[in-house]
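Researcher: Please predict.
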Amino acid sequence: MQRTLFLLVLLLLSACSKVHDNFLWYRSFGKGEAFFVSAAGDTGLVSGGIIENKPYLVYLNGKHEKVFEYSVDTSGSFTSAIACEEGIVTAGCIEDKLYLGMMDYTGTLVWSSGFSSSFKVGNVILCRTQKDNFLAVASRASDSIPGGNYGIKFISFGKDGSVISNDSIIYYSFYSVNGATIDNSGNIYLAATKLGAGSKKKATLAKYDEAFRKIWEVELYNNPQFEASSMSVVTDYQGNVYVSGYTEYPEDVTTYRNAFVASVNSSGVIRWKKYLEYKNEATSVIFDNNGQLFVLNKGCLILNIIKTDDGSVSGILRTFAACDVSYDKVYGNSATAWGGNSIVIAGVKNGSFYIVARSSEILSPI
């Protein structure tokens, strides 16, 4: 009797101490990495990146079931997509060239185009313009090997793939665009990284008008001893801009990355800057469907809820109950709000293309 009671107590203690992961669902699609995820209304999701080192795109329905997948038998990646009524507009790089295309919702390719430039394209971001057309912003990858030309390529185009306008800006030292967005007035904001003093990367935010003319550029972190990079950008209805990325900090004899988020007004004046998770990178900044600002920390898929007035953290959402950024191989590159109260994250887990959803309402202990 005493032995039975002892075993029951142990069982109860084990049940009470068990920790649970905090996701709603997840999907894995083979060896590779998801670079982005975006919502197709409330009825679907599109995500893309690479699988087996080839461009890969997948569309999920409202029940997060795979409707179709699309791949190209060549080198490159899909890096951005926007869903519209006619289909899914896609962008990426194919054999170092800018790629644009559209898929219908059955997975059939409607049209595609390739564009040459004077630099190797490694990243392309899509934005929807006010006139229901699209803007593609291309640059070299943020981890590209030094050498050759760098630059920005802008292409404005319609749903049928017709080019409305385009322009290129060439740089002869490192320059990479990791995020782009358009405000209500048609201004373009770029989360960019370029070389600073001591050949260290520095995080910047640049504003361009609809004619691709630079209005201003502000440096967010420019300590010549350490690197920094801007990785994502979003605007609000008041004209404020929010950008996330990473800086570096020393610890003993090692240098680690530190996630940050900053806010700038429409004139380029910095409102505030805040550090977030240590040994991490803030790869995505988004608003959810309730107007809350979220920042995704790459390692362990940690989300911070940010107060827009001062940048303070009002809540933390941990996707996994037990995850160490120094050891666990799970990384998030992109996040999007989906449905009433969920946030979907795309990245890689243990070497596989990975998509996971979690509630935006269930907070984690600090």
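Model: The CA atoms of residues 259 and 351 lie 23 Å apart.
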